[in-house]
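All the exercises in this workshop are built on plain-text protein records. There is nothing in a record beyond a sequence line and a structure line. A learned vocabulary of local backbone shapes supplies the integers on the structure line. The question running through the whole workshop is how a given chain folds. Here is such a record, shown just as it appears in the course material:

***
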Amino acid sequence: MLHPRQFGVNEAWILFCVNEEPIHTEVDGDFHCMVLMDAASCFILGMEMTSVLEAEMPAAQVRQLLEVGRAQGQQLPRTLFVVKGSGNRETAREAVGMGIEVVAVEEGELLVFTSSARELFSEHMREDR
């Protein structure tokens, strides 16, 4: 089981969808909020909204998010964890092109990292309604 203590800061990052239900907008449709998090500190490095109509996060958004992470952390990680089976071909292509190893894991293995962020995001969304 993965745990933040296993990593040094900027050694590994995690890319995950923070919202459980799509975020609805009247003008632009529904979105997922993709979050990039440092595995050691659980610090959120950046986020991108991506349309639920997309099968996966577009390459340009992946690259932008990784660059935002690099600016925050002053370096790129060695490893990027993604959720297995969630359409990560573009993510893998972009990350590998930047010298990052991509590791797909079951969503349950990332809960120790992601659950607090998801809970806070959910609370924030409920308050905005």
